[in-house]
Amino acid sequence: MLNYREGDEAAFEMLYRKYEKPVLDFIYRMVLGADEAENLCQETFFRVVRARKNYQVMATFKTWIFQIAMNLCRDRQRRSKHRSHLSLSAPLRAQNDREAGLEDVLADPSPDLARRVETAELGAQVQRAVAALPENEHLVVVLKEYQGLAFSEIAEIMNCPVGTLRSLNHRAHEKLRKTLAKYLGD
């Protein structure tokens, strides 16, 4: 980002290539809408461009850009009068990180179709359960479990002590365990 601030346009391209997918994935998990996630991702990078001249190193670029994305998601949720609901045609993340719609899973004539449908259904239930968490718990789970960030990085993004984040994470996992118990056989 420092190189970009000094006028190196190729530096922005490198930042975009490195962070576009993780930022988009984070935003998607926060808003559960592909179109809205793409719009907010573009807005995130637009804000990076606008901040170019005034950028000051106060944290890592990674935590800074996730903080921008988090604030955009929060703003969007505040403007929205109701929470988004997961559509059956919404993309589901497969284990190989390829997106597949539920209709793609159902169209597969393979003998293990029932297992794949069950896996897709569980994935959708997990997405719903995570989305239903209170905002700070939702953020911690998405940043920790899906983005793989350390608590120290999440603390910078959320401007919150690490101990508080650990408590939020524990509370969120307890709620998820209870919510998903019937699907996990507990």
Give a structural overview:
The structure is a single chain. This protein is an all-alpha fold. It has a domain of 80 residues: Orthogonal Bundle (Rna Polymerase Sigma Factor, Chain: A). 70% of the residues lie in helices and 2% in strands. It is built from 9 helices and 2 strands. Strands 1-2 form a two-stranded antiparallel ribbon. α4 packs across α8. The longest helix is centred in the N-terminal third of the chain and has 23 residues. About 12% of the residues have low confidence.
Shape, please?
A: globular
Order of strands across the widest beta sheet? Answer: 1-2
CA(first)-CA(last) distance: 47 Å
Number of strands: 2
CATH-derived architecture of the domain at 1-80: Orthogonal Bundle
CATH superfamily of the domain at 1-80, by name, is RNA polymerase sigma factor, region 2, helix turn helix motif
Question: Mind telling me the C-alpha Rg?
Answer: 18 Å
- Largest sheet properties: 2 strands, antiparallel
Structural class: mainly alpha
Strand content: under 5%
Order of helices and strands: HHHHEEHHHHH
How confident is the prediction overall: mean pLDDT?
A: 82
Number of helices: 9
Task: Determine and state the CATH class of the domain at 1-80.
Answer: Mainly Alpha
The amount of helix comes to: over 70%
The third-level CATH topology of the domain at 1-80 is Rna Polymerase Sigma Factor, Chain: A
Instruction: Show unreliable segments.
Output: 83-90, 92-106
